[in-house]
Amino acid sequence: QSDRHETNPNVSLYGTDEAFLGTFGYDLQAGRPLVAQDVQSARPVALLGSEVAEVLFPTTSPVGKEVQVGRVRLEVVGVLAEKAGLFRSPNTRVYAPITHLFGAYGSGGRSMDDTRVRAATASQLAAAEDEVRSHLRVIRGVAPGVPSTFNIESSDFLRSTFDQFTSTLTMGGALVGLISLLAAGVGIMNIMLVSVTERTKEIGIRKAVGAKWRNILGQFLLEAIILCQIGGLIGIVFGGLGGNVAALYWDISPSFPWMWAGIAVGGVTLLAVIFGGYPAYKAARLDPIDSLRYE
Fold this sequence. Notes:
Blueprint: E1 12-16, H1 20-24, E2 28-31, H2 36-40, E3 45-48, H3 50-56, E4 66-69, E5 72-80, E6 93-97, H4 98-105, H5 125-139, H6 155-198, H7 200-208, H8 213-249, H9 258-284, H10 288-293
Helix pairs in contact: 6-8, 6-9, 8-9
């Protein structure tokens, strides 16, 4: 909190060092980053996430002001630029020198769950991973030939895990979509069968004045296709709008999947032909005399 404003309780306080910005991929919006002297001298300074700064200092610059996070009071030296997050917003965090937080909260009994290391370039990722593994094995006293007592997760590993997750999600979505298509197809067939029954006399009149069976077949197939296309286009429009709204929320460039839209149009057309085929065939094979007698 500041002297005049207070955030909701979901603000997190993190202890870090001067390498924080580069390692975590943050940019500064205002002020300066943490420097080595801040960490070495355990200075009571902080970097605010963009949302925290906006709530606490809506009309003034927070740089140089003081905030209180829990039991510690910190001077704001910088504000982080807004950053997208996957599940929880990283903009509700406050970062301070780890040495100062150790002094405020104590360092006894605390453990380090993970350490983040960033390679200078993507081509050096494998070498950096090997170097980190070697150092950690020495630090943890792991004998040669003994499996490591720690895990290293690289960006490639995280990417492959995310790809597996999205593949599973895509397969699940495809299965749900297939079931939905089958249900929609049955619905289309029922609607068309009801339409054929209600228009039996109309079909008889058309045949009596010279309409051939293929004309009746084409008419009802066209109606089924138009009905499916209307539903498909509504789905494409709302799906595209929903996806782009979500993309804007997650700070991702909006786009429209033209290829999948084309596949959807072709898919609903095929659906109409398959499930509308039987009602259309039934209408085309009706006897004109029996149809004219139908009440």
